Every structure is written in structure tokens, then in C-alpha cells.
């Protein structure tokens, strides 16, 4: 009995010490005291075992002892197995900043740090721009007209975008721009997502490109010349990075610049001779100034002793002699301006280099530092805006579309995707807004930018697919009335650009985060490179303490003990506590994967992707809780919070299971499973009762629907019809209409109305004649059904409308000439 008691005390005590990362001294003291107690109470065997454990802890844990024998051996092994970090990888790792992603990597997230990023909201001028200019721009768009009729935005819309400064949202006011915050820029792009071509056209100049690069790295002369012209649309920028052989691997640029001298107007000018071929460059066909990435060489050593000067960026006017520009690519589903740029031996002066001579060779650093912000905003905001509109359209359509005498929104097969759409929209809104708020506080979130880009555009893929499903024939029939189909077909663009999602998920989120966000790995690698054993000892054994701490935290919280104290009230508290539990498990699994696989982890992309999935879902769930804590709640929002958090935590646990099942070291996988999930999985998929509740609210005129559709173009005041405004108007009147539907349909079922009254309009008229409904109700239903039918109607066209070459058109119903033998018979008669 005494032996068992000592074992229990030792295990519990060590778990407490490990959780608190109290260090070797505390563990040594505990084991030593219990060992001596064991000897004193005649529990000799366990006493000796505990004292041996104390000696082992002292030898391996006390700095004065371990530095004599253990640290040198570990250091030598580490230098052999640690992954080699290339210069380009190091540049990417050092770009940006670490904030909440680092907390999740630590395994012990401090929620107070996340909540310390206060939100001041939008400025008055920013909100006014959303309400007025963004609404007017959205109101000029019709997807069919833009995609099929003109393959471009209307001229009046281009003029309006330039006049109102849409291309200068990120440019400070002193240069003539709008000087918007990251949150305002994001909200503007969400509102403009009523049309994907409009969103891309405005988003790209305000993302990675000449404007942002000039702001951060340009010379004063470059800023003063270009920024005012970019702000008011006199200059339209594009940026040439990708090409036929350099897409995701942007550092392998085959485009070359050579330092040389050229005689121009009788004067010798120092400059560059460029040869390049770029593809998939947004705005290139109409750009007036081209940002260009290339590898610079100085064979004559005109600038110094180095021949290979590295990746460099330049800004080249469109009319530069020798540059081929103006042709277009045809992006799937959306005619936004996109095309190739080519040039052979194109000469430009040295002052075209962005930032001047001092920034030669700094192009890769410049790009990754800018990308950490731009990738957080443009495509994630577009995906979030699309989610708002798709949800609004789908909720409205499924409520007014009736089958089997009920709205299809009442059918559980439709309620399931509606609820999923609402949750994905809710998660997206919270994540993109709160991450933009981090940016407004000075953060440059490199790893979150990869999370947002890949996760939210994948959400967009699911959302649009669900929207297509619930719309049925309405969405698969193209034409001016179809507000959904063209955007659905354009979704692969968002999946592919700014780092294809396959690459981002498999290589970047965990691959970059494992080093960049980990509390100690970067220090360990730096100590290795500097051959600094003292620094290595400090970092490595702090790292070891973290591993033991995460194991203890994950295990005890998995058993339901020692839940973290969190600054959340109500339903959010339990989710925050479980994010902390899974964060500890993630930190442990990340370290286990790195330790067991070493540099081979780079090639285990599927395993890296699953580790990234855990981090991604924990990050998204954290942003949902931050938004919930900060925002004003509406009726029904708690159901959406439950659905969203359960959805994300279920996905996180699924990723854990796949990690355990696929670690090459199967024993390690089983041990991790037992530590991280000692009682099994905790989170099921969201339950059906939540889906039913959410689906009803987003398909009716409710406070929750109104909140989810905030900052959309929802007024019928544009040059083009607004389907969202029309659905909203129908939902306002729907309860009244539903009561009349019930009266009329009940009478029809009882035989009180003639069986020939098959259409709703006919039943209403007969019901009025029979006195079942009033004249006022009849007038109301006539108008209501007219509006419903308009929203259900699809377009049709002339038979030859789609044949570009009319000469190839086949008239399948033309009168065919009679066979020869029949003509001969008729002639004989």
C-alpha cells in the first residue's frame, strides 16, 4: 500500500512539475524526498527506484552537470540531423512577425495576449466609403454583362474606380491615397465581392505590387512620382513574378537582368538589360507601369565585386522599348485583366530598381515581407465577401422556392448545406477581420497569411458548391439573371494564385511555422550555425522542458483535470479551454515529428499538411472566440458559435488521428495518441438540431441573417438589379405570405378550390372569389408571387446566340432534301 501511495505521489507530483515547467531542481527535490521516505517506511524497492530517478534527473537536468557530458553529445547529434536552412528559406522565416500563431505553437496560449489587440472599428471616412462608394461600384456590375458581353468592367465603372481612389486604399493621404486601415481595406473588398472581377481588379493594386513595394522600399523620388499617380488611377500597376517555369517556386526565376552601359542621346547611361517571360500577371493587359522580379548579374562588375547580385525588383513604364505587353489570358469564369509580359534585351536605367541601388539583391526579402500582409487581406477578403453574398442569395432563394407545398428551406437536405454555409461565413468573417486587426496593431502575420489564404478560399469552394446545390436549375442556367454560376466557375482562380493551396497547406503552414513560430527551434538553429554550445544548451533544454510540459498539459486536460483558466464567459469558455488542450497536444506532436524525422520531415508533406491542419483549425477557432468576445451578440448567434467551434475542433481532432496513424514510428504514434487523447475524441460533428435552427434563421428575416450580411450591397439602388435586396424584401413579407399559402393550400387539399387551379396565382384568385382571403391579401399575393416568379426565372436566348462563328452553326430542324430515288418517282408522276 505504501509503495502504491509513493508511486501515485511521484506521478502526480511530476505531472504538476511538468505542467508548470518548474525545471529539474523541482523534480529532483520531489523524487529525492519521496525516495528517502520510501527507505524510512520500509518501502525499500520503490525508494531506491525514486532515488535512482533523482540521480538521473540531476545528471541530465542540472546545468552544472549536464554541460559536462550530455550537452556536447546532444549538440554533435543535433548538428548532424538538424535541417539545413537555405538563404531563401531563412529570408522567408525572418519575414513578418509572430503573434497568436506563436502562442498556439507554444502549447500554452495566453488568451490575454490575443484579447489585448483591441479593436477601434472603422474611421468615419472608411465607413462612409463602404456605404457609398463601394455600394455604387457594386451596383454597376452584372456578372453576365461583364463576363460574356464585354469581357471587362464597364467604362463608367473604370472611371468611377479611378475618380474615387479605389486603387489607392493602401496609399497614405499625403500621397493622395485613402490611407485605409487593413480592416477597412478588407471590408471594402468584401463588399465589392458582389462581382469577382470587380473585387480582383480593386484588390490586386492594393495587395502585393508596386504600390506596397514603393511605400516600404521606394526612394523618395520614386514615391513622390508614382504614389500620387497610382492613387488617382493615372497609373495602373501590375507585378510580374510568375512565369512558365517559376510558379510556386518563385525563387527559381529564370528571368535575367545584366548590368551594362548604354549610350542614350549621346550620353552613357548605367542600367540593366532585361530578358524575361512572365505569365498570369493580373492587370498586365492594361497596366501602365510594370513591377518586375528578376535575377540580376553584373559580369563586368560595374557595381562591385559580386557577379550574382540576387533577386531584384524594378518598376518599368509600359512604353519601354522592347517590352511585349497587352495580350490577355482567359481566366476561368472571370474576365479580369490578366496576361503575359515578355521582353528580350530590354534596357532600363538603374534608377528603375525599386529602392535604388541599395535594394539590389533584396527582392526576395521585399516580396515575402509584403506578402505576409497582402495575402492576409485580398483573397481571404474576397472569399469572405463571396460567403456573405452566397449565403444571402441561398437563404432567400430556398425560402421562396416551394416544392411539395413547402419552402425547400424547410427540408433537412437543404438545411444541412445552409447551416454549413452560415458557419463557414461566420468563421471567415471573424478570421479575416481579427487578423486585419492584428495588422492594424503592427503585426505582419506570415504564418496566418498562409492559413487564411488556403483555408478561406477552400471554404469559398465549399460554400459556392453548396450554393449551387440548393439553387438547382436556377444556378446552372447562365444568363443576366444568374448571379451565382459565373462566380462559381471562377473559384479555382482563388485556389491557385498567391501560392497554390496544395503547396501552401503541404509546405508552408507547418513547414514555415515549425521554425518561425516555435519558441526555441530558431534559437537552436542559430546556435548550431554559430557553433555556440552555451546558447544551444539554454535553448535545447528549455525546449525539452516545453516538451515535457506539453505532454503533461495535454494528458491531464485530456483526462479532464487542470483545465486552463480562460478570460471568456458563457459558451465560449469551454471552447477556449479545449483549444488550450489541443494546443498542448499540437506542440507535443510537432516536436515529436521534428525529433523523429529530422530533416526528412520536409519530404513528408502529407504529415506536415496534417500538422498544419491542426494549427489552422485552432487559429480559426481562436479568431471566432475573439470576435464573439468583442462583438455584440444577436439572437441565435450562440447556435452559430456552437456549430462553428464544434466544426473546427472536430476537424482538428481528425487531423490528430491522421497524424497518429501515419507517423513512420508506429510506437511513437500510439504513445502520442494515448497522451493527447487518453479518453478518445471529444468533438463530434455539429448536431442536426443546430443545423435546423441556423438554417431557419438565415433563410428568414432574422437578426442573425442581418448580422451575417452586414456590409454587403443590399439595397436595390444600383444601375443593375440587386438580387440580395430583392430576396431581403421578400423575406420581410414572407410570414404574411406563408399564412395565406397555408389557407389557400388547405382549401385546395379539401377540394374547396377547383383541381385545375394548379399555379399559386390561380389558387389565390379562386380563393378570393370564394371569400377565403380578403381583397387586400389578394393584392398583396399578386405582387408577392410576381416578385417570386421573377427570382425563380432563368434566361433563354436565340438559337444562334452562342456560336461565335455563325458559319459553323448547324440548323438541326432545317427541311432536308428528299432522297434522289424519291425525287425521281415524284418527277415521273
Automatic annotation (TrEMBL):
It comes from the Bacteria. Keywords: FAD, Flavoprotein, Membrane, Oxidoreductase, Transmembrane, Transmembrane helix. Residues 238-335 form the Acyl-CoA oxidase/dehydrogenase middle domain. InterPro entries: Acyl-CoA_dehydrogenase, Acyl-CoA_Oxase/DH_mid-dom, Acyl-CoA_Oxase/DH_mid-dom_sf, AcylCo_DH-like_C, AcylCo_DH/oxidase_C, AcylCoA_DH/ox_N, AcylCoA_DH/ox_N_sf, AcylCoA_DH/oxidase_NM_dom_sf. Residues 515-797 form the Acyl-CoA dehydrogenase C-terminal bacterial-type domain. Its cofactor is FAD. It comes from Halomonas colorata. It catalyses: a medium-chain 2,3-saturated fatty acyl-CoA + oxidized [electron-transfer flavoprotein] + H(+) = a medium-chain (2E)-enoyl-CoA + reduced [electron-transfer flavoprotein]; a long-chain 2,3-saturated fatty acyl-CoA + oxidized [electron-transfer flavoprotein] + H(+) = a long-chain (2E)-enoyl-CoA + reduced [electron-transfer flavoprotein]. Pathway: Lipid metabolism; fatty acid beta-oxidation. This is Acyl-coenzyme A dehydrogenase. Belongs to the acyl-CoA dehydrogenase family.
